[in-house]
Amino acid sequence: LGGWCPILQFHSGYQTSDLAPVVRRLHSLLLAPPDDKLRAVRNKYSHKIFFEVASLPLVNVDILEKALSSQ
């Protein structure tokens, strides 16, 4: 979690190690196949105004684990 600096840690009260389980869970949810119930959300965040974040590729699990374990 390269962007998690001491200032963020201070103001949020969370250390990188506190965030690791949440990051892993969010990643696993994003790996699941798209759900028709959330199609509107996916479409919304596929627009340019939202920087097309729904279209961004996910980080590889190995890279994610390496980043989380290096903290």
TrEMBL record:
Gene3D superfamilies per record: Cyclin-like
Cyclin C-terminal domain boundaries: 3-57
UniProt protein name: Cyclin B3
